[in-house]
Amino acid sequence: MDKLVSTDWLAARLGADDLVVLDASMHLPDSGRDAKAEFDVGHIPGARFLDLESFIDGASDVPKAIPTAEQFAERMSALGIASGSRIILYDDSDIRTSARAWFILDHYGEEDVAILDGGLGKWRAEDRRLSQREVVHAPRPRGRSEPTREVRTMSEMRENCSTRHAQVFDARDAARFAGEEGSGSEGHIPGARNLHFARLLEDNGEYKTPDAIRAEFEAAGVDLDRPIITSCNSGMTASVLLFGLALIGKNDAALYDGSWLEWGADSSTPKEQGEAR
Fold first, then answer.
1. Is residue 232 annotated as part of the catalytic site, yes or no?
2. What is the pLDDT of residues 17-38, one digit of tens each?
3. Which of 74, 102, 175, 206 has the greatest count of CB atoms below 10 A from its CB?
4. Domains in the chain with CATH codes
5. Which of the following is catalytic: 26, 95, 168, 232?
6. Where are the alpha helices (DSSP H) in the chain?
């Protein structure tokens, strides 16, 4: 299964025994939107609600940290997802939160995971059927999965500021990256480059072609032969960059999960303003 599937592909396979569809929508706090309430009003038939907002390690000092291996297993079990299932993720979020869900599942070794290109917006625009029925699935016990993707800590990011071993790409908009007045940001991690996550997407919410995604990274100054770490405000849109990198065959990039929520809140961390140099 490809990492990105079309609405036609999904519509032709809905109801397959080994196919799990997960609504991974999550919205910014100031959006006024409630992902679960919207799911209840209408979702892709047979979809299960991931509840991405709560899919974190609340005991961690890292803001909105990815769940632990035990928490991951518990959530997959509660959703009734059997090992080896083909999992399709979609969202209806302005920040494309299905990419965050993809990273978590990929991090814990789920092998058949894809994102629905264009998400619920495209599904709805094509006048495809929606359902208000939430199917309850019996829990399926899951074993603990060992992490397979790299997640960077603040201490590792501090070290990287000195060594510049890895390239850091910040997925926030240009104003926040630069620390412009009124943006609510003091800038960015020293040495980081800016690639707003939206540049990987078409106006209709679909991902750009691999060649176009590659061109966006190259324009931002990427060297695909060197290590890459992505960051953003809370680890959400940084996952869009990671998914884009995976679409062009770069599968070893890492996430700074704490991102600016952690780095910016610490008065001892170095910060830069202005455009990337």
1. yes
2. 999 999 999 999 889 999 999 9
3. 102
4. 4-125 (3.40.250.10), 151-263 (3.40.250.10)
5. 232
6. 7-13, 35-41, 69-78, 98-107, 119-125, 154-163, 174-178, 210-219, 237-247, 259-263
